[in-house]
Amino acid sequence: MKFSQFNSLIEYREQYVLFNSYHNKVILLDPNLHLLLKSSTDVDDIENLHPSLFYYLIRHKFIIDNSVNEVEDIIDLRTSIDENTKEFILFINPTMNCNFNCWYCYEKKIKNSKIDPFTLIKIEKYLNNLFNENPSLKSFSLSFFGGEPLLFFKKNVVPLIDNFIFNCNSFGVLHNINFTTNGFLVNDFLIDYFLKNNIFPSFQITLDGFKNDHNITRYNKTVKDSYSKIIENIKNLIKNHFLVRVRINYTEKNISNLCKIANDFNNLSPDVKDKYLVFDFQRVWQNEDGLNIDEILHKTILQFKEEGFNVNHKNNMNNLIDPCYADKRNSLIINYNGDIYKCTARDFNPANREGFIDENGYIIWINEFLEKRMHIKFKNKTCFSCKIFPICIGGCSQQALENNGNDYCIYFKDETKIMNVVRYKIENLLYNKDVKIPTLNENSS
């Protein structure tokens, strides 16, 4: 027998914790058991000194058989997920235009861009082909991105949703619909359309800080207080039972006021907050080299949780069982002009396209881009010995492509950053009311 290579034994908030990043399990230990594990160089020591602890750790896979190759098992599991033919993830950019001009946005705004009638027909043909030619398909996620996808909701988005729902119902495919939007254009027509058709999409809506900070960033010639309107729209969606993920973009300048955002949602009932609202904190990437504000963020997240809100953060990722959509074979992005991409976090420049839709509704991949992406993962051998390899999996396929076979680490091999991931995973488990955390002491059996 041997210790799992993905165990971390740390002190967290005056508690001793054993965490396994592969199986996402936490055990709280008393000081004596902590000392026993810390001083044990071999599992036989534990078996001899504390047999009940030894067998407990075996049951929960903190101790495993010598024959187990955890890295190979992880790669096999992840590959099976990436190659899963039973699900499909499709993003559509109805336009690359937007009603705002946020300074940090990496997308190039293209005025007058929208899906023309010819491209709309090609996309509908593609959907028809996809359903007809994939009998193993069981679930389908359709997401609208951009640009601002609600700019041409009635003209371009509604026909695509109608086609999508018809095909899903005809072929018995489970479906979900998502929008990534600034939230300003949510209106009664949109809500009524979905309610009348018994469709309940989810929405990711961004805020750029609390009111004043947000409005400095998110404005145009006619809109000076977009914050109040977006908050109103979020509440309207939530009250109609649409799930909303509020993505809060933070910087060193706006982070000190983020807790005030929670006050704008405290009048919601606990049940509504729990079922239909999630907060997600993301640092604006242009500000990542600024001051270290992790501790302020940590306190902010804790305050949101203590006020009963669901909170997510990039350190709570699980790239093993919930990988980036771009890593999956059955995922792609259709731009408004019919160009094909895989990653929404990069500029939709025509020079970067990976394929296009032909007139018959089939995808033509350029230079075997799809196969290159599918085979670029797991080339970085240094990842295999990292304690959080099951969590980050060496980053996504886009990062692997851009590093082009070179040795890299998405945490820059910074032990402090890596252990912060471990600490956040532990914290998330401890705050999860659905997870029972065992506490072991010297007398545990």
Q: Any low-confidence stretches, pLDDT <50, length ≥5?
A: none
CATH top level of the domain at 86-365 is: Alpha Beta
Percentage of residues in strands: 15-25%
Number of helices: 16
Mean pLDDT: 94
Major sheet:
11 strands, mixed
CATH topology of the domain at 86-365: TIM Barrel
Strand pairing plus helix content: what structural class? alpha/beta
Number of strands: 17
Distance between the termini: 20 Å
Architecture of the domain at 86-365, CATH level 2? Alpha-Beta Barrel
- Strand arrangement, largest sheet? 12-11-10-9-8-7-6-13-14-15-16
Compute the CA-based radius of gyration: 24 Å
Roughly what percent helix?
A: 25-40%
Apparent shape = globular
CATH superfamily of the domain at 86-365: Aldolase class I
